[in-house]
Amino acid sequence: MYIYFNIKNTKDIYDFLSQAERQNKDNLFVEWFLNKGIPKLRSIDLNNLPKDDRFLAMLELDEYFLKSEMDFTDPEEIRRCIISFVNSLQQYIDLSKEELNEECRV
Disulfide: which of 36, 81, 96, 102 matches 55 by Cβ 3.0-4.6 Å? Predict the structure, then answer.
C-alpha cells in the first residue's frame, strides 16, 4: 500500500490512511480500508495462525498476484488484490485449520 499510495514514513496504519485521505488519494479505497478492512483484520487472531505449508501457499499466491499488478497499468486491479486478500485471510486460516484437524483425526 505504501507503493500504491506513494506515502512514506507513517507511524501506523491510521496515520498512513489519514495522509492518503488528506492527499485525496483514492478516497473510496481509504474509506473501505478504514471502515471494513481494518475491522476485518482486527478480528483475526494473528497469534494463532496455522503453521502449515498450505496456508503459506495461499498467502504466497496472493502476494504473487499483487506483485504482478505493481506495474500500475490498472490501479483497480491493485485495489482488488488488496481487498481480496483482506477479505480472504480468515477463510484461508479456517480452511488450513480445518485441514489440519482432519489430518489429526486420521
Answer: 96
- Cell 496455522, located at residue: 50
pLDDT band for 105, please (50, 70, 90 cuts).
Answer: low
pLDDT tens string 72-92: 677 788 888 899 999 999 999
| Cβ atoms of residues 30 and 20 within 8 Å | yes
**Helix, strand and coil percent figures for the chain, each rounded to 5:** 75, 0, 25
Domain chopping of the chain, boundaries? 1-43, 49-106
Residues in Cβ contact with 91 at an 8 Å cutoff, skipping those fewer than 6 apart? none
Residue 27 and residue 33: Cα distance in Å, rounded? 10
Instruction: Retrieve residue 32's grid coordinates.
Output: 473501505
